[in-house]
Amino acid sequence: MKTKYLFWAIPLLMLGACNNDNGEYIDIKDNEPLSVTMPSNFPPMVYNVEENPPTKYGFELGKKLFYDGKLSANGFISCGFCHEQRFSFTHHAHQFSHGIDDKEGTRNTPSIANMAFFSEFAWDGATSHLDLFPIIPITNEVEMGETMTSVLEKLRADSQYQKEFEAAFEEGGVNHENFLKAIAQFMVMMVSYNSKYDKYVRKEDGVALTEQELQGMHVFQEKCASCHTTDLFSDGSFRNNGLPPNPSINDIGRAEVSGSGNDNYKFKVPSLRNVSLTAPYMHDGRFGSLESVLNFYQSGVEDSPTLDPLLKTEEGLGISLDDTEKLALIAFLGTLTDDEFINDERFSEY
Amino acid sequence: MKSLYKLSTLLFLFVSVTSCSDDDSSRDELTGSGMVKIEFDNSVAGDDLILGSSYTNSQAETLTINRLNYIVSNFRLTDTQGNVFTYPKEAGYFITSEETGNTEVVLMDVPAGRYTSMTFGIGVDQEKYLLGAEGQGDLLTEAESTEMMWSWQAGYKFLNFEGTFTSSTVPENTNFQIHMGSHGSSLDNYKETTLSLGTEALVSDKMTPIIHLVVNAGNILDGDNKISLTEQAVIMVSEEKSPKIAENTANMFSVDHVHNGDGSSH
């Protein structure tokens, strides 16, 4: 039996060797499917992995693209420039996303953790498919300022990329479809599910929350969880949370996409995973701390025709919170930090 | 037994009647499969559309059209028996453009038959969009090269209609831009239209009909719904106006004539 295998192995090796003349040949047979994490405490995944099953080479290609400045007009702004892993893939300390030539956008970089569990993307839901999302920052003139066609031309001119595309996908080579699939594979694998909170709810490793964290969790469930639902901590809907519009920008949010005045100033409810790491907060990054965020909900909510009804009750506008509750909430939100995720080498640039 | 006899007589009569009326040469049996060519002949107010020339519409606005691109999709052909042939979705999206002269759609491998009506969509349906990267294939590439990628929302412009205009209150030449497409998940502007062909379009391995459509670009703003450029000259995402433009656009197509033959000439 052994000899039979050996007999076949020799011509196979010879074939491989023939193709392997420049040292960088990647054998497509080595490509293997990756398993996507579906945590038991999460709702079902929205992304259809059967249509774009992550593979070793697809994921690696997606990661390389994610960190490659070639995707921008000046060659320096990669996706990872604004989406930094140690801040759960947000742009820490930057109110707005900086793009090429130091141009500045009008919105704060959102996290890309757990995107496979959502059905609308960007603060205003400009796209409803994760695969297509990268087109938006790549072509935005204040972000990466490129065209897809030009990005693909640059990649096609790079023989290493050609090989990596060939290895990752059975057909097509360097094209729109495979480019978007590769980046999506990288993003789909980014699942943050191992925070202290997760281990507590899944009863793993005997993890317990402190008394203050537990108090915060109860306040959260009572006063925050109608929008920040499930263990994704977002229902994915678009809501006006009463943030007074910044008059110099007047970003109307979801209404930009829908064209409907009923959607004025509505933005996607963000997930709160790793929220202790993702300052500044709100779609325009106006708040530097979680204290400021909670103070805003307590006393800064502004009424308007599209204000979310949940923030306008008989008791008044906003959410009533006392100082003890605020401290407890902040302690609870700290349990959503997932150190394994932000240190996961599979996602890291270097 | 008696009824069977009756039935067979009827059947005999029916066969002989149909065969009697079947003496025209085009009534020969159509076999195999062939192509259908559809010519989108862009026009305005009954005249050929010439980019850069002017015309005045019923709202007393004078338009100089510089761009007319639109996506047509999901073709379905219905034959005399009521059978519907649906063109394969993966190959079913076409970008037409007056400026590049790319105004003909060719459907391949259409089963032989006598087709009497045609249905198609204007734009890209949500089902297609939600197929993600896999489902878009080369359409994104093509859309970007023809100004039909709506990049800020990672989608498609179904219609890109641009130029300049003047009116009694806007005397200076002013740019107009009409970009119409779906609004994310909140408003689906994909529309379909069904056209009777008037003449049977004959398809076989020897016959390729050319369906010649006249497309009245004037209808986009000046159809059943009246859209005033004086009021708003740049319309891209409007909950009120975009669906009206989509409806006007879907109604701008009519069948002028059908050429039956080998498809080589009009």
TrEMBL record, chain A:
Residues 211-337 form the Cytochrome c domain. It is found in: Periplasm. GO terms for molecular function: peroxidase activity. Its main location: periplasm. Keywords: Heme, Iron, Metal-binding, Oxidoreductase, Periplasm, Peroxidase, Signal. PROSITE patterns: CYTC (PS51007), PROKAR_LIPOPROTEIN (PS51257). Transmembrane segments: none annotated. InterPro entries: Cyt_c-like_dom, Cyt_c-like_dom_sf, Cytochrome_c_Peroxidase/MauG, Di-haem_cyt_c_peroxidsae, MauG/Cytc_peroxidase. This is Cytochrome-c peroxidase. It comes from Flagellimonas abyssi.
From TrEMBL, chain B:
Keywords: Signal. It comes from the Bacteria. Residues 1-21 form the signal peptide. Pfam families: MbnP. The keyword Signal applies. Coiled coil: none annotated. Residues 34-236 form the Copper-binding protein MbnP-like domain. InterPro entries: MbnP-like_dom. This is Copper-binding protein MbnP-like domain-containing protein. It comes from Flagellimonas abyssi. The lineage of its organism: Bacteria, Pseudomonadati, Bacteroidota, Flavobacteriia, Flavobacteriales.
